[in-house]
Each structure stands twice: as C-alpha cells, then as structure tokens.
C-alpha cells in the first residue's frame, strides 16, 4: 500500500530541503544539486523499499544533511589545495532588509552543523530529539550546538 505518491512528496518537500541545504552549504546551486541528487536516489528505490520509509520528509532531510556535510568537507579540501582564493558570493539582485542581511551574515560565521541545527530548530521548529536524529547525535549535543550557535550569532550581531 502506497502512503504518498513520490511526486507529491517532491512538490511538498523540495523548497524546504533546498533552504536547509542552502543554509548548510552557503551555495544555492550546490543546495539545488544536493536536493536533486537525494530525490533522484529516492525515486530510484523500488516501490516497496520507498513505501517502507514511514516519514519521507525526515528520511529526505537526513539524506540532504548527509550530502551537505560531504559537500562542505570537499569544499574545505578544495580550498586548502586551491592556488586561487575563493571568490565572494555574488550579491543578491533583490535588496533585503538590514536585519535579514545581518542574520544571514551571522549564520555564515557558524559551522555547517551549527547552521543545520539552527535551521532545523528555529525555521522548521523541530524538537531537540528529532534534530538529534537528523544530525545523528545526542539531544545534549543538539543543545550544545544551539547554545554555541546563538552565542556566536549574538557576538557577531553585537547583541
């Protein structure tokens, strides 16, 4: 028995997963690629295996976080061995409010795992236990990640 059609899950979850991947990687292009790859792999599962996934959203979030972690690690190695320094990201065409820009800048000061924890907690409003499952860590680690993230952001924001 099918719980949800894969196309419905894609339509519903894609935007949030891209936002999660963007917050984690800092690159919209990489975020879209990561999410597309995760969905492609999920669609390749035969119908029976895909139906065994009780919560597709949680399964897909975990897969996106895992791929984002790999992407960030690869970028760190690439930057370490690159002869030319990385270029600054292009400024957005649409002006944003000063507060939003300041928060985005503060998020860039966080490690990818901290950004993911902040996104899962304050954007998706997930409980600590579920964030721990998503990040494959203990709830106490989530509390620590969030505490340190907020402290860093306050320092950067000057609060």
From TrEMBL:
GO terms for molecular function: DNA binding; sigma factor activity. Keywords: DNA-binding, Sigma factor, Transcription, Transcription regulation. Gene3D superfamilies: 1.10.1740.10, Winged helix-like DNA-binding domain superfamily/Winged helix DNA-binding domain (1.10.10.10). Residues 102-153 form the RNA polymerase sigma factor 70 region 4 type domain. SUPFAM superfamilies: Sigma2 domain of RNA polymerase sigma factors, Sigma3 and sigma4 domains of RNA polymerase sigma factors. Transmembrane segments: none annotated. CDD domains: Sigma70_r4. One of its GO terms (biological process) is DNA-templated transcription initiation. InterPro entries: RNA_pol_sigma-70-like, RNA_pol_sigma-70_dom, RNA_pol_sigma70_r2, RNA_pol_sigma70_r4_t2, RNA_pol_sigma_r2, RNA_pol_sigma_r3/r4-like, WH-like_DNA-bd_sf. Residues 10-75 form the RNA polymerase sigma-70 region domain. It holds the Pfam family Sigma70_r2. It comes from the Bacteria. Belongs to the sigma-70 factor family. ECF subfamily. This is RNA polymerase sigma factor (Sigma-70 family). It comes from Allocatelliglobosispora scoriae.
């Amino acid at each position: 028995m099918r719980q949800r059609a894969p196309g419905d899950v894609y339509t519903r979850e894609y935007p949030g997963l891209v936002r999660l991947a963007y917050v984690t990687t800092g690159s919209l292009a990489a975020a879209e690629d990561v999410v597309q790859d995760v969905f492609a792999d999920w669609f390749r599962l035969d119908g029976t295996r895909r139906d065994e996934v009780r919560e597709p959203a949680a399964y897909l979030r975990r897969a996106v976080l895992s791929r984002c972690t790999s992407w960030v690690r690869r970028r760190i190695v690439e930057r370490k061995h690159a002869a030319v320094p990385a270029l600054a990201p292009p400024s957005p065409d649409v002006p944003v409010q000063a507060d939003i820009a300041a928060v985005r800048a503060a998020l860039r000061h966080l490690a990818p795992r901290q950004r993911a924890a902040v996104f899962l907690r304050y954007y998706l409003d997930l409980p600590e236990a579920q964030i721990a499952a998503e990040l494959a860590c203990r709830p106490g680690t989530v509390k620590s990640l969030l505490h340190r993230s907020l402290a860093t952001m306050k320092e950067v924001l000057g609060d």
